[in-house]
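Tokens as discussed.
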């Protein structure tokens, strides 16, 4: 049997031995660091997470790691061989007079320097990745800390503004020659608090729901200290007119400002309308200026809104059951899907109001109300109210109504003529809120 002997230099054998020992030591270290019962996939996923490369596909990460390992081993073997060749093979003293060999030796020194630099960069790569991961985590932690501090500041601003909603000031009251200290509502601070809440919502729209709840609670609870005027439909002509004017004059500025802010919340950029719940049930809204506001889906059950101005506001799908809205201005108001069951709308101005088949007017009282440029073709429960309202030929009547009531003009009137004839009709049934005479 023929034997082939390959002579290996002693330095090469030593280099191979050192490399094997290094590889064995590395394997033992990696094995020791792995969890005792970790599966291969779990170990790879854990290592990938520690490197901060969770978003990278596992296959791509495994390919990167194996490529890095291969490059590392090639460079390590190369540098070890170069070191052993440089130290144990030949030196410049042994190559005296052989300039070519000396230049080869010098090239091996340069090669050793280059390999050392490249190997250092390869070894530093995973540590650089880990450092970047730690920097990201630290940045996220700092951002989270700033968010917590900002939330705390915003909550302080919110709580401070809410406290001002019920602000009072101490005043001196005189009874004859004697003075006594008392308390009265501080409307200036209250309005300032309401304004700060709206500014807060514009800065952080997620506060809209909380602000709406606080303002609605303010308007509802203040009804006890500021009750609505009694509105008796059996009052005389002059008494009814006086009540209408008094409703407009006695409006509380802080409560009106609160309701106006509530109606603007849904239109603020970034606010989710579904998160803004408006509950003004049984609130006193008499005489308030609530034009062009959004009360879509609001709970207005049994509100007192006599003389209120809702011109061009959005009341779609609002719950207005049993509301008292005599003499209110509802021109151009969106009432699609609104529940107006048993609502009192005597002498209300409904010109250009928007209705649909879901608008519920069952048992609603419309005596003396005005209808112009209104489509009633699909509105249920409206037929019985038509003889007691005033309109003209601009109104689209229900399909089951053969002709308009006798007191309706046979033409479309201009604004001034329509208003004059409407007031004349109201006088004929005993009411005229404006009392032009």
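Sequence:
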């Amino acid at each position: 049997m023929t034997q082939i002997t390959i002579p290996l230099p002693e330095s090469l054998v030593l280099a191979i031995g050192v490399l094997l020992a290094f590889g064995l030591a590395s394997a033992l270290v990696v094995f020791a660091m792995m969890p005792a019962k970790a599966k291969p996939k779990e170990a790879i996923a854990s290592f990938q997470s520690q490197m901060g490369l969770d978003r990278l596909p596992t296959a791509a990460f495994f390919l990167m790691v194996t490529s890095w390992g291969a490059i590392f081993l090639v460079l390590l073997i190369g540098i070890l061989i170069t070191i052993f060749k440089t130290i144990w093979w030949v030196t410049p003293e042994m190559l005296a007079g052989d300039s070519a060999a000396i230049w080869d030796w010098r090239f091996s020194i340069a090669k050793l320097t280059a390999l050392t630099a490249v190997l250092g960069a390869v070894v530093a790569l995973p540590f650089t990745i880990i450092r970047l991961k730690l920097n990201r985590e630290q940045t996220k932690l700092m951002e989270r800390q700033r968010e917590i501090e900002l939330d705390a500041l915003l909550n302080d601003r919110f709580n401070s503004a809410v406290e001002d909603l019920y602000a009072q000031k101490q005043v001196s009251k005189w009874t004859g020659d004697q003075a006594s200290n008392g308390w009265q509502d501080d409307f200036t601070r209250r309005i300032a608090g309401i304004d700060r809440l709206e500014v807060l919502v514009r800065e952080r729209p997620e506060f809209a729901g909380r602000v709406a709840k606080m303002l609605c609670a303010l308007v509802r609870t203040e009804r006890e200290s500021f009750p609505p005027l009694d509105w008796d439909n059996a009052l005389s002509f002059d008494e009814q007119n006086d009540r209408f004017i008094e409703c407009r004059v006695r409006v509380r500025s802080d409560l009106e400002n609160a309701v106006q802010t509530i109606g603007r919340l849904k239109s603020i950029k970034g606010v989710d309308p579904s998160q803004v719940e408006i509950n003004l049930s049984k609130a006193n809204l008499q005489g308030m200026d609530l034009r062009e506001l959004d009360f879509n889906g609001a709970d207005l059950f049994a509100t007192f809104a006599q003389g209120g101005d809702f011109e061009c506001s959005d009341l779609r799908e609002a719950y207005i059951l049993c509301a008292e809205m005599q003499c209110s201005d509802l021109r151009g108001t969106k009432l699609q899907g609104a529940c107006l069951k048993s609502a009192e709308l005597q002498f209300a101005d409904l010109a250009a109001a928007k209705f649909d088949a879901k608008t519920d007017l069952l048992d609603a009282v419309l005596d003396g109300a005005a209808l112009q440029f209104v489509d009633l073709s699909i509105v249920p429960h409206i037929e019985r109210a038509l003889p007691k309202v005033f309109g003209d030929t601009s109104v689209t009547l229900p399909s089951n109504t053969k002709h308009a009531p006798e007191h309706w003009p046979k033409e479309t009137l201009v604004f001034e003529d329509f208003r004059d004839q409407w007031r004349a009709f109201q006088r004929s049934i005993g009411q005229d809120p404006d009392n032009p005479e």
